[in-house]
Amino acid sequence: MSRNRLTTTAGAPVADNQNSQTAGPQGPVLLQDYQLLEKLAHQNRERIPERVVHANGWGARGTFTVTGDISRYTRADLFQGLGRQTEVIARFSNVAGEQGAADAERDVRGFAVKFYTDEGNWDLVGNNTPVFFVRDPYKFPDFIRSQKRHPRTNRRSNTAQWDFWSLSPESLHQVTILMSDRGLPQTPMNMNGYGSHTFSLWNDQGERFWVKFHFKTRQGHAFFTDEEAKAVIGEDRESYQKALFGAIDAGQFPKWTLYIQVMSQAEAERADFDPFDLTKVWPHGDYPLIEVGELELNRNVDNYFTEIEQLAFSPSNIVPGIGHSPDKMLQARVFAYADAHRYRLGTHYEALPVNAPKAPVAHYHKDGAMNFFGHKTGNPDAFYEPNSFGGPVEDPSVKEPPLPLAGDGDRHDHRLGNDDVSQPRALFELFDTAERERLCANIANAMDGVPDEIVARQLALFDRVHADYGDGVRQALAARGRSARKAAE
Ligand code: HEM
Questions:
Q1: 174 contacts 127 by C-beta, under 8 angstroms
Q2: How far is ligand 1, taken at its centre, from the CA of residue 110, in Å?
Q3: For labelling, which of 3, 50, 304, 357 has a CA lying 20 to 30 Å from the CA of 21?
Q4: Mean pLDDT across the stretch 318-330?
């Protein structure tokens, strides 16, 4: 087999890749051995900043196929026509662990999908949970701080986590999910994905509908107990990577069904909960699931770094027919991700092959580090807008309908009068006895080392959700040799 010649980065053939150029057999090395310097310099630059959250992840490429007609809700090109296929790439992740953290840790999982549509990239950057810990973006950096390492001990801190949660009653719903069986899936294939926020769809008539997106796993749910996870991690810290990569390599392609829930503006105004509050679900009885399509992951990437590490998702990436909503958290995310990518990957991160749209790209952004694409206007004389040189122009036909906004520009207390307990109560009531026992045991486990007053504050919150919830955790704490009495006792 003839083999390619090894070359320098400048393309010149390399004569010797084994021996440095030296003054004699024992050295020293000559400064003119540029290829040695080049090799060492490249190694020094191999790392880029990891994602500030969701650093540890696993991904693959695949296909989205339309199986249900939602054209009355949206003009989005990718949803037009049963059987219509769109190329996708997905990345799943843990939230708190750094790169190299063990995969099978109890944590929320990211579930992000980039759809390379004919009208640009649409990124649905969700989690495996339909709600979140906080409902105001002011709280997000603090929440993440409580999950990451303590600045002095450099260890993750149960105390910080429960301190934050016990002072943030809006977290009860998500904490209950995280500590339940759903909080520790066996593999990324055994979990659902949720857009979580309320988004919108809009159609050719300019009508807007509020929607939630749900990916339901076709592999079935499977979870680890904390004990099982310990054993898995002891054997293999990369168990998710192994499972996902291995399944696709073996031709067992994981699949999810995509559904939407739809709410009209009139229904949103009538709802007895805030439909734009990220800590709430929309009851399925009132807002039934509507099938949209099938997500199949069927191709492993060839290079983890270029295709998964350099993969850049952003909730700001929407396409005509899909829109945002007033959800404050979503609004903050529309800013945060592209900003993170410019820092993590560089100004022109969207031109990297994995992020580059399959749709034609025509814009007037220019220059900056690593502009390797030249001009994107089709004509070097068209480098500003408006111009007389045939450069790209706006297309009013894709104008989004106006948002129904009214308000006072004030800061509204998001906790005042908000019902943080009914939805977690409904969830708790769905759990059978064994599920409740596991939930309470996982919580007791996670409270190791947490000061009594913080535990007591959190137990009072669980009591408000359901008497059996607070008592269940008390019993689980007692089983671990810790007494935690009811405040009134
Ligand atoms: C105000 C709230 C939030 C902020 C400011 C925020 C910010 C960020 C940032 C800066 C990253 C790293 C991006 C990168 O470097 O590539 C990230 C990653 C991620 N976030 Fe958020 N986030 C928020 C809430 C959420 C919520 C509610 C969800 C899910 C519903 C979510 C899901 C994800 C996922 C899945 C990733 C990893 C994406 C990937 O695989 O590359 N985040 N977030």
A1: no
A2: 8
A3: 3
A4: 97
Instruction: Name the residue range of residue 347's domain.
Output: 57-131+185-351
Say whether 127 is catalytic: yes
Tokens of 373: 């694409």
Q: How far apart are CA 196 and CA 193, in angstroms?
A: 8
Please report the pLDDT score of residue 489 as a whole number: 46
Residue 113 CB: number of other CB atoms within 10 A? 26
CATH of residue 219? 2.40.180.10
Question: Which of residues 319, 351, 383 is at a domain's end?
Answer: 351
**209 in contact with ligand 1, CB cutoff 6 A:** no
319-356 burial: b if 16+ Cβ within 10 Å, else e: bbbbbbbbbbbbbbbeebbbebbeebbbebbbbbebbe
Number of domains in the chain: 2
The domain boundary, picked from 333, 351, 369, lies at 351
As beta bridge partners, residue 213 has 260
Which atom of ligand 1 has the smallest separation from the CA of 141?
Answer: 5
- 113 within domain boundaries: yes
Identify the residue whose tokens are 């034609």: 360
Q: Is the pTM of this model over 0.70?
A: yes
Average pLDDT over all residues of the chain: 97
Tens of pLDDT, residues 371-425: 988 889 999 999 999 999 999 999 999 999 998 788 899 999 999 999 999 999 9
Exactly one of 127, 128, 190, 442 is catalytic; name it: 127
- Contacts of 369-372 with CB under 8 Å at 24 or more apart are 370/346, 371/347, 372/348
Report yes or no on 35 lying in a domain: no
Residue 223 counted as domain residue: yes
